[in-house]
UniProtKB/TrEMBL annotation:
UniProt name for this protein: Flp pilus assembly protein TadG
Domain TadE-like: 27-69
UniProt keyword terms in alphabetical order: Membrane, Transmembrane, Transmembrane helix
Superkingdom to which the source organism belongs: Bacteria
TM segment ranges: 35-54
Transmembrane found in the keyword field: yes
Species classification: Bacteria, Bacillati, Actinomycetota, Actinomycetes, Pseudonocardiales
Pfam family, one: TadE
Amino acid sequence: MTAARRLPAFTRSMRAGIHALRQDERGSAAAELTLLTPLLILLLLFVVFCGRLADTKLRINDVAHQAARAATLARTPSQATANAQATASAALASAGITCQSLSVSTDTQGLKPGSTVTVTVSCGVGLGDLTSLGVPGRRTFESSFSSPVDVWRGTSPNAQAGGTP
């Protein structure tokens, strides 16, 4: 006689039930999805975090561009520095970026027609504010942009008459 026939009927039916359960895959996809859902949500939040970092970097680049352009429109180096600072602050506020520390440095090279004005904007942003996810830490974004001073721009009437501009 075989070993299966020697076992009591209860044991044989129990083995058959266990074998049937092993072969039955109903509900396995739901169980797998339940286990993977937290990982998928974490991956989604990481993608959002990276996207917000990239967006902030692009906005800081734009702020540096705007500040450099505003500085080239000034007539004096001190006014160029003030214009760059004011424009950078206003552009950051309109972009919705709150800097924990903001530094705007302006290199006017004398602000002569044909020269370039270079503005460097450095903005320290808290990662918790940036992503709205409560991520600890801080990141400093820095961008520099150069804009030419118009070669054909006019001078003030005082400068033409030999006075100070």
